[in-house]
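hey so i finally got around to running both of the ones u sent me last week. sorry it took forever, my laptop kept dying halfway thru and i had to restart like 3 times lol. anyway pasting them below in the order u listed, first the sequence line then the structure token line for each. didnt double check formatting much so if smth looks off just lmk and ill redo it

first one:
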Amino acid sequence: MTVQETTGPPRAADPRRWAALGIVLLGVFMDLVDITIVLVAAPAIQADLGAGHAGIQWVVAAYALGLGLLLITGGRLGDLFGRKRMFLIGVAGFTGASAACGLAQGIGMLIAARAVQGAAAAMMVPQALSTIQVAFPVAERPKAFGIYGAVNGVAAAAAPIVGGLLVGDDPTAWRSVFWVNVPIGIAAFIGAAALMRESRAEWRPRLDVPGVAIVTLGLLLALYPLVQGSELGWPWWGWAMMAAAVPVLAAFAYAQTRRERAGGMPLVPMSLLRRRSFAAGMVIVVAVFSSISALFLVLTWQLQQGHGFSALRTGLTFLAWPVGLAVTSGTAVRFAATAGRRLVAVGTVLLVLAMSALIATIELADGLSAWHLVPGLLLGGVGFGLVAPILVNIGLSDVPEEDAGAASGVANTAVQVSSAAGIAVIGALFTAFLDHGPDRAAQLSLGFVAVAFLVGLALCRALPGTARSMS
């Protein structure tokens, strides 16, 4: 979807566009780091607040749900009311919610603050790509998007180390992973207010508030009992809630179909899902991205609670993954236009092999150390680097240009919502087998992750052979 200015002829390029881009990417960096940094701090939060495993799952999942469910709406609000305005609202909300997380006196308050933090990120993050489209001439956009991609990579590498350094061996220092956002957020707000140029769409997008409400209800009905079930002994009402989620989500699909046929702007245009390649791509997105956050949460529990790793040692161990990702992500982007499907297939094979290696390492290692896990994590990062940068783009390749914006919104929402769902499902599996020890629970959870990657591999043949041009 092309972003256009509101009125009049095209304006001259903003002379402060590069400085404004740096400010916008500061907000994006906060969001990306915050997704991962909390995983390393999870056991410290759990110990200090006296929370169970379910509470920590909600701390991670609430952010992903808040972000994912409002991501499309956040983009439309920027088009409607101004991208600079929505970015400032998002940064202010994110910064305030981060302070609330740092002040949380109980797990319930922390979960609520994390949900608000995710919702604020949904107002902030979509404005970044829109700003690049609006502020930069066509010739400069590849460089701007390249910087955006580099920030993604730096955030992925920095998050586990920063989290480990901030928490260290002090179980009460977890609050610092949230407080660190406050000065950064204040700086981003002041910089954006001074440097960003306001812009909004020429057309008037329509919001789908009922759609957001229905899908939120359906997902909560499905995820709440999955997260809480093991600790509560799987009560009958949990099964009833999961059963009720089916008609609610069916009602969402029906409402979206009716809205689309009436000429409205649904959150999820159901006609897109009738395209075999797009539907297969979204299933692969769910299979892959539902596993990643859950994978690191499970390993964090296993290493810190089962083997006495500090937060810093855990973060340094996890660094092998983004290192592997950095090795192959550039290659994936470079050859996506000619060999995209094959790259995704090879990547998913490597992810399956990486999970198998980690399972075998946990089983065979005598006195598990970080060095035992590094080869499997490095291999997983190499595989993920072949998949993550290009999977969404390949899934969009057969989508008509006029539907590309809506399809991109659906895909990015699927990434976030599936992350929350994976944490619920795989976290519940880990908790259910914890009586057999953290190592056995981790192995079974990693086995489930490997199966998810195999599902993705099986569907690769349905993908288009190449990616849409990334220019």
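and the second one:
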Amino acid sequence: MRWLFVPLFLLLLLSRAGADPRAAVEGYQLQNGMGVLFKPTSQSGSVSIRLVVGVGFSDFSCQDRQLPHLMEHLFFSGLNGGDEADLEARMQALGGQWNAYTSEGDTTFVIEAPAATQRQVLDLLLEVLTRTRLDTAKIAATKQVLVREDGGHYSHLQRFLDHQNTSRPGQEQLAVELGLACTERPEVAQLTQAQLEKLRSDWYVPSNMTLIVVGDLDPRLPAYLNRTFGSLPDHTTPERRELPSMKGPAAAMRTLNTGLFGEGAVVHWIYPEPEEADGAALDLLQAYLSDLLYSELRVHHGLSYGPWSERAAYANQGFLSLNADIAREDQDATVQAMRQLLDNIREHGLDPARFARIQRVARAQLAWSTPSNASLADYYWGALGDYDGERFPNEDRRLAQVSLQQANAAARELFKGDGYLRIERPLLDDDMVYPLGAAAALLLLAPLGFALLRVRRRDDKTA
């Protein structure tokens, strides 16, 4: 392990001199296969730690999809007979704070801590991973936490609405229609302790973990990790599930109900990304479209205060969307303005001056933004798939290499179809409240009036 001290020391010197680009890290594997990434920075006194475990929602069927999420929460349920509050108090005593997140592809533990206690914080994390005991009471209590996180009990009405394809947000709804996402909200009631123990045994092994430490690094960290995390036993993980592919067809246009009454709506015009499209070209195209939507829908037409474009992914399929929050009476005008915008790109391509400006801004942001330890750690977490064993991609070079011709080719391929229009809005506008209220009052009062009339007639006959 001594050879690690030289490059680590050099990285520390470079970071102090301000010559440490984001792409440069010190990465290696412990003897048991666990990945380690170090990034010294000039921000003294603190570290950001990410432990990324390669298991997520997509490794399980729709029925068991919540297993890794439930396991993540159980790791915070307490140690040695203590509860969650006792565990949190131990972390606070070290001056740190922590959380964890489960995504489609991984479960990640996120820790911010003082540099002085970084090894003690890692001790506590290791203790949580290896000594957390599962029992019926803990599992039942944690299941209730997940139910509340997901918005409460999954009612028969909500299940019915989900099957009608009208109750989800726009992009998620399209993913369901295309076979890329589950048709029902995953539940936790049926998950068992045996399943959780198997998940932990199968997936929480060193060769399926990567530890990222960014900030004021303790020079003794490599030796410490070799002695602690490096002693964990390893074995081969199960084969990961094959991700679904688009099955289509999906409806070209669909209105999604977001409530009973309201004056607002959200328009999503969604396009599947081409399989071989260049990621940097799509990033710049997405930024270009956000700028164009702002100019057209807000400034020129006054239809939306904050229109935006975004990229998202479900399974192995990426999507790029144009989005606008609008008044519901402006729906047709907004769709028409978006259609004209897209037709202009199809016919004339991207505006060279706007594209050059967007590209320049995107590159400048890399230069003038000063990432914190936390944002750097999050970047490495999100970009682990692009790490080549020595460096992360040079983002500035990646953006600079995209030509206008490449961006136009990506736009033509992306927009060659009609895409999918999803419009979120309440079932009725607010103006319908009074007519419906009057109708309801009439329905309630009519029987009462009829009954009073019958009583009066009976009294008249008696008299």
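quick thing i noticed on the 2nd:
The mean pLDDT is 88.
anyway thats it, ttyl
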